[in-house]
Amino acid sequence: WTGSVRVQRSIDGGTTRLPLTIGGNVWAQFTGNCCEPVWEESETGAQLYLSVTLTSGTLAYRVAQ
C-alpha cells in the first residue's frame, strides 16, 4: 500500500477527532508497515480512530489495547 495513516483521539464519541501529538509535534503517523505501541490511554471513554489516505493498494490494520 502507499499513502498515510494517522491515529486520532476523541473524548466526545468521535464528533471531534484530534491527531495524536507529543510536544506539539505529529505523533502516530505512518507511511509504511509497522508494529509498535503508539498510545496508552488513561481517560475513560476516550476512543482512537484511524484517518487513512490511500493512493494505491490495500491497507490491513489492527488496533488493540
Characteristic key phrases:
65 residues, single chain, 4-stranded antiparallel β-sheet, globular, mainly beta
Average pLDDT level: 93
Helix- and strand-based class?
mainly beta
Strand content: 35-45%
Low-pLDDT sequence parts: none
Choose one word for the global shape: globular
Number of helices: 0
Helix percentage range: under 10%
- Report the major sheet: 4 strands, antiparallel
Q: Tell me the Rg in angstroms.
A: 12 Å
Along the chain, the helix and strand elements come as EEEEEE
Q: Could you describe the 3D structure shown?
A:
2% of the residues are buried. The mean pLDDT is 93. By secondary structure, this protein is mostly beta strands. The protein has no helices and six strands. The strands form two sheets. Strands 1, 2, 5 and 6 form a four-stranded antiparallel β-sheet that branches. The chain has a two-stranded antiparallel ribbon with strand order 3-4. 0% of the residues lie in helices and 42% in strands. The two termini are 24 Å apart. It is globular, with a radius of gyration of 12 Å.
